[in-house]
Amino acid sequence: MNTKEMQEAIGTTPDGIPGPKTYAALRAAGFEVMIDPGHTRDHAREHPQAWPRGYWQREPGLSVAEALGISEATEDSVEHALNLRLATLLAARLKQAGIKVLLYDEPGLGNNDEINRVCRYCREARPRVFLSLHANASLGIESSASNTACGTIAYYAPGSGCGETLARRLSSALVDYRRRTGGPHNRADLAQPGRYSVLTHCPEGTAGALVEVGFYDHDEDLRYMATHGPGMADALAEALLTHLNG
User: What is the Cα–Cα distance from 170 to 147, expressed in whole angstroms?
Assistant: First the structure.
């Protein structure tokens, strides 16, 4: 949900302008999990129209487009489309389990402006868990056919014990799911510290993790992320529920 939708959900005036009343209502809402589908529509490096050599008109681009429901090049980025779909599926799984979830996404904002709001909303909401979802890149989409980097990696704020525990659980869940379903998994079950602002700004008591679900510039990894969204959402949901109930 964007700011207006969030304001409506927590019972404040839905004007899209966060202020003291919005923050007070956010603190009182009792969200247990906050999900951030990383990057916004202006994040240009992986726009379909920027992919060279007709990638969007051949495999695996065609399979990805079909899986994500994209019929033509738009302002949305491939990474944002992947992140948002996975976040939406994951939020639905958690809500079915009775978890109160805040999924915040404001693609109308620039990327840095949205990050600032994500950090502020997390500080105010003080969820037990904060999760930022991303897709990784190594060589660039123009080199996708020869790129060998694939698989998942999770980050946590340096010195955050609860964040490290969460990151390792999420990484293990995704790696295990890849192994069971025959997905690319040449990366190990990997979690490591990272000084990303969405993690370092998590309030005390919030376990934060940033998960690079896979590499969008690896042909098979991109196809796998696009076609295995529901299964990855199930794996992440199970790991999050284990963390919340632990």
Answer: 24
